[in-house]
Design a protein that fits this description.
globular, alpha+beta, twelve-stranded antiparallel beta barrel
Length: 638
């Protein structure tokens, strides 16, 4: 039997029927007290307050549709879109008699944040509404021992579609004196057994997975992100009070039964963690400001910019970053020695080892141990502590003096939250052959190689759904110039120790020039892989083999294919400017067999963090005679 008792004239009758049917042993005083609580809650407007909406994961303003997608989370069958009905059902449920040996299943125990808030708002009479004992909840909170909340950001990991924007989670600071690595963590993630890949990315984009909150140990997160995926980790200690911290965790406890549709772009890990912070302090109004995408670095920026919300930042370098730091001062011969140690475990009577003092030997072994761990994670996605080679190096290291290294001594000068905004609007004039034009483009996320680099992974480019419109004044013609559905580039430089693969993927459409018919919008898919190397004076060189598919009715079979090569030189690590000189060539295989090529130079100047100027010169031959395009543009990041 289901009763819907909202704010209707029949609510008193509904409550009476409910207690007769569901609570036959309830006294008249209990019934009257429940009715009075419901009336007081309505007079106070509790069911339409920001706090109640936050607990039900409804927008704090406007819509009353919960983002929780599991119906069994709600006590009312209308609870997902009727906060008043869910409030009335919640109050009634608190009066239920506990079942024998199932105390933890009582609604007061299953919804401790709701109970705590309503108790504070309505001042429950313990004689008429007894507080239930909740052993499981009490043990859960005792194990957490909460003293504060830290918002953790493992930066982007471009080789995993689910993590190319980065990730966020919570670490629970504890009163007990112990290592931060042993602290509990709260994570929100998609529930899937599939390996990362194209299907995984597509389903994640369109809500094909459910997401849930989970509790674990922070050390496991550090091992996964910092060691196995080689992602630097930033830890932002938040300015939540003790009561807000406790309330947030009570809400996490009741969300263990809740499932959410998971979307990579918006309702993802960052969005859901913002909703937890809103539940603890609903005046912040964090989630209602997200309209296009919830990018982790943007949510970090949003939280820490609030007055009093940031107490401090710690930096935990990845295994790769540690290895780079430990080897940055080594000579070429010493780097070769580290590589030999990581390959063989010993170097015998090598003079490079014998003539090094014990402190230098310790540093070489530290680097070799990190290199072995890095190679393990790169090859298998995990570390094997029982590896004989690793044990041999650890044994040799134990005989040498301990090093003294601070975790924070190499924090980057610009944190991810201090980098440019992830959305971008661009506008500027140009000339194509002899035709003048104006381009206007929009990018919802995230970063390209010509954007200001500080705060972002160097050599990484990730863009989605980025359109560009072009207007020719002399022709009074507006053209859809380009649409980047997906544009990912990873130019990771190698050295004597690590030789990562550089790669790129592009899917989209752009205007291509043909001998017959002029410019035509052409679908294009492109992929490539190769190497990047560090050059002197802050430059990098790269070369990749590529393959492209073109889709257009101009071709005899509607498509064309072109293997090719792309290579160039780019600046790396400059704060105020970027430049790229790139050449590309391909050979069309299908019926119009011909060479295509381009030689491009791009230069950007970063005025301030969120504004930059860019110039591009592109000499190219597509499916027609060669032409030259010159463009200027202003880029605004937000």
């Amino acid at each position: 039997m289901i009763f819907s008792c909202g704010r209707r004239p029949t609510q008193v009758f509904c409550f009476v029927v409910f207690f007769i049917v569901c609570c036959p042993h309830s006294s008249g005083a209990t019934v009257n007290y429940c009715l009075s609580l419901q009336k007081e809650a309505e007079l106070l407007g509790l069911w339409h307050s920001r706090q109640w909406h936050a607990l039900l994961h409804m927008p704090l303003q406007g819509s009353e549709q919960s983002r929780i997608d599991s119906p069994d989370f709600f006590l009312s069958h209308e609870g997902g879109n009727n906060p008043a009905a869910e409030g009335a059902a919640t109050l009634r449920s608190f009066f239920q008699q506990p079942e024998p040996n199932q105390k933890d299943n009582h609604p007061q125990c299953r919804y401790p944040a709701r109970y705590q808030w309503l108790k504070n708002q309505l001042s429950f009479d313990a004689g008429l509404l007894p507080e239930q004992s909740c052993p499981r909840l009490a043990q859960w909170m005792a194990d957490l021992d909460p003293a504060g909340i830290t918002l953790v950001f493992p930066e982007s990991y471009i080789n995993n579609p689910a993590s190319m924007f980065g990730h966020t989670l919570l670490r629970i600071e504890q009163h007990a004196s112990r290592s931060a690595l042993l602290a509990p963590s709260i994570n929100f993630s998609a529930i899937t057994e599939e390996s990362p890949g194209l299907l995984y990315a597509v389903k994640g984009l369109f809500g094909g997975y459910s997401g849930k909150f989970s509790k674990g140990l922070y050390v496991d997160q550090v091992r996964s992100y910092g060691a196995l995926e080689n992602r630097d980790i930033y830890e932002y200690t938040l300015g939540l009070s003790d009561s807000e911290t406790r309330f947030l965790l009570l809400h996490v406890f009741e969300l263990k039964r809740a499932a959410f549709d998971y979307f990579f772009f918006d309702e993802n890990c960052s969005y859901q963690l913002l909703s937890l912070i809103e539940a603890a302090r609903p005046s912040l109004d964090l989630t209602d400001h997200i309209h296009v995408a919830s990018i982790p670095v943007d949510t970090i920026r949003q939280v820490v910019s609030l007055p009093g919300m940031l107490r401090g930042v710690e930096y935990r370098p990845s295994l790769r970053s540690n290895l780079t730091r430990k080897t940055s001062h080594l000579s070429s011969l010493q780097l070769e020695l580290v590589a030999e140690l990581a390959d063989k475990g010993r170097v015998g009577n090598d003079p490079r080892w014998l003539f090094a003092d014990k402190t230098q030997q310790a540093g070489l072994l530290d680097a070799a141990i990190d290199l072995v761990l890095y190679n393990q994670s790169a090859a298998t996605g995990k570390n094997d502590a029982s590896d004989p080679l690793l044990l041999q190096l650890l044994q040799a290291r134990s005989l040498l003096p301990a090093g003294t290294q601070s975790m924070n001594n190499n924090m980057p000068a610009v944190r991810p939250d201090q980098g440019h905004g992830t959305a971008r609007f661009s506008f500027g004039p140009g000339v194509d052959h002899s035709d003048y034009f104006f381009d206007a483009g929009f990018r919802p996320v995230l970063h390209d190689l010509m954007d200001p680099g500080p705060g972002y992974v160097d050599g990484a480019e990730v863009e989605f759904f980025s359109p560009t419109l072009r207007f020719y004044p002399d022709k009074n013609q507006l053209v859809f110039q380009q649409l980047k559905l997906l544009d990912i580039v990873s130019l990771a430089p190698g050295d004597k120790l690590i030789k990562p693969i550089s790669w790129l993927v592009y899917i989209g459409m752009d205007q291509r020039r043909y001998t017959e018919g002029g410019d035509r919008l052409t679908g294009r898919a492109k992929a490539g892989f190769g190497v990047t190397t560090q050059l002197p004076d802050g430059f990098e060189g790269y070369c990749l083999l590529t393959g492209q598919l073109f889709f257009n009715s101009h071709f005899q079979y509607g498509l064309n294919a072109a293997p090719g090569v792309v290579g160039g030189v780019r600046t790396s690590g400059h704060e105020r400017w970027n430049s790229v000189l790139q050449g590309e060539s391909g050979y069309s295989l299908l019926p119009d067999a011909a060479w295509s090529w381009s030689l491009k130079f791009m230069q950007s100047l970063h005025i301030i963090r969120n504004f930059s100027l860019r110039i591009g010169i592109d000499r190219k031959r597509e499916f027609a005679a060669p032409s030259t395009e010159i463009s200027f543009s202003l880029h605004w990041y937000f």
